[in-house]
Structure formats: structure tokens, C-alpha cells
Design goal:
Blueprint: H1 3-17, E1 25-29, H2 35-43, E2 48-51, H3 54-67, E3 72-75, H4 84-90, E4 93-97, H5 100-113, E5 118-122, H6 136-148, E6 153-157, H7 166-179, E7 184-186, H8 193-198, E8 203-206, H9 208-211
């Protein structure tokens, strides 16, 4: 599906639910995509992208940034503590802050380097054992802990369980954000981004609907 079609669908859903036009940022999820597909989307003028792995992003985005100024790169996959410094240098936004050890590491490196990406906390709204993210019951305390470390958390992110109505999870994330004074909500993917917009998403993460099916080895 062309990039313009996704942009049109976002605009139509914003209008349908009374959101301000342009209130939703489209993150093009370029993980495991052939380079020519990513370049094609860049050449269409899009500049906001998401990657799951630090190593993969490090292999392609420094060169792409040279050719296409103004890229905003989001880490949307789990972050290993030992890759924190590399991630903080590479990404503009880290959406997957999800445990105290990682928060402490980010705070320490930010102090040492004088730089910190924008940060989101990942909430495991379905409380799934195999997924990263802080549980909804622990989210308030974890956000307070991040604040105490001097970290500014500007958003929350979630990935609803497969097979469940995603709108319920989007509504839960929005509720947690509201009571903690957090403005940004990263939620919704190729199959459900319109429902996320209806629940207040400020960022939607769309991959295969833009690029086509991923080219896993």
C-alpha cells in the first residue's frame, strides 16, 4: 500500500473522531526491510522511522541520514542495557524504557554525555510474560522512579496481545498517560492504527502496510 494511502487513512480517521488534523505522527517501521524500500519512502519525503534492533539500525541509518537530512529515528524494540550508550547516540527517541536498571543506565549516561534522547515507557497492557514492558499496576510507580532519576518521560507505548480487541488496551494506555500528565501515546500498527487514533494515539507504528511483507532471512 503506498505511503500516501496510509497518510490519507490517518487523516480521514482524525477527521472522523474530531482530532486536530496532523495530530498523529506516522512512524514508518523499517526493520528487516530491503534498503531500496526504505530509500523509496525517504524519497517520498517521509522522515520518521522506527527500528527494533540497535545493531540493524546502526548498520544502515548513519549513511541514510547523510543522504536524507531531518530523519527522526525511534527505537521501538527491547533495549539491552549493554547497548544503551549506542542506542542513545543513534536514536532520537527510545520508546521502550521498561525497567529500573535500564532507567538508571540511561540517567547515568545522559549525565556523562550531556545528551538524552526523548523517552517513552513501554507498558505491557496485556501482562504477557513473553513481552517487554512494565505492568499497568506498576506503571505509576515506575514513572515516578524515572522522574526521580531526572528522566523526562514524554510518552507511553504499548503492543496489545494478538487476538484481543486492541481498543481496550489503547484506552488503558491513554488512562495511565492522563493520570500521569503524559501527552504522547505510541500505539497502533498496520492492522489497527485507525482504532488507536480513535483512542488518542499521537504516534502510530506502521510497517508492512507501507513497505510490504518483511524480508526475513
Amino acid at each position: 500500500m503506498p505511503l500516501s494511502d496510509i497518510q490519507d487513512r490517518i487523516a480521514k480517521e482524525e477527521a472522523r473522531v474530531g482530532r486536530i488534523p496532523g495530530a498523529t505522527t506516522l512512524i514508518a517501521v523499517s526493520k528487516v526491510q530491503p534498503l531500496e524500500r526504505v530509500v523509496d519512502v525517504l524519497e517520498q519525503g517521509h522522515r520518521v522511522f522506527g527500528e527494533n534492533k540497535v545493531q540493524e539500525a546502526a548498520g544502515k541509518w548513519p549513511d541514510l541520514r547523510e543522504s536524507f537530512p531531518g530523519v527522526e529515528l525511534h527505537l521501538i524494540g527491547p533495549l539491552q542495557t549493554n547497548k544503551t550508550r549506542q542506542a542513545m547516540a543513534l536514536f532520537d527517541v527510545i520508546q521502550t524504557v521498561d525497567r529500573p536498571k535500564l532507567a538508571r543506565t540511561i540517567a547515568r549516561i545522559a549525565t556523562e554525555d550531556g545528551h538524552c534522547p526523548r523517552l517513552y515507557v513501554q507498558v505491557n497492557t496485556g501482562e504477557e510474560d513473553q513481552k517487554a514492558g512494565v505492568s499497568p499496576a506498576e506503571a505509576d510507580d515506575f514513572l515516578a522512579e524515572c522522574h526521580a532519576l531526572g528522566l523526562k518521560i514524554e510518552g507511553l507505548m504499548c503492543i496489545p496481545p494478538a487476538g484481543e480487541e486492541p481498543s481496550l488496551h489503547f484506552a488503558l494506555l491513554a488512562k495511565i498517560a492522563k493520570r500521569n500528565g503524559i501527552d504522547n501515546l505510541s500505539m497502533g500498527m498496520s492492522s489497527d492504527f485507525e482504532r488507536a487514533i480513535a483512542q488518542g494515539a499521537t504516534h502510530v507504528r506502521v510497517g508492512s502496510a507501507i513497505f510490504g511483507e518483511r524480508a526475513y532471512d
